[in-house]
Amino acid sequence: MDKNKDGLLWFEYADNDLEAVTILSGQLKPKYEIVCYHCQQCAEKMLKGYIAYNNGRLQKTHDLVVLCETSANYDVEFESI
After folding, report:
1. What's the domain count of the chain?
2. What is the pLDDT of residues 44-63, one digit of tens each?
3. Cα(first)–Cα(last) distance of the chain, in Å?
4. Strand, helix or coil at 72?
5. Is the pTM of this model over 0.70?
6. CA atoms of 75 and 79, how far apart (whole Å)
């Protein structure tokens, strides 16, 4: 399994969620709970992509704090998030 390709795939999935956020938030009466859901999904997938791209082990979690802590293993800047 090529972790770098996996990372890029996760980034692509995150971009899809971000596109959904842009479209949904631009509606006349946005459903903010759905917009927020896609924001969380985008952040989660970006973090998982970053971990995979750095050849890290992906965790089955939706916890952004845990994913941020794992990302900090590759770049200490994540500790400030």
Report:
1. 1
2. 999 999 999 999 999 899 99
3. 30
4. coil
5. yes
6. 8
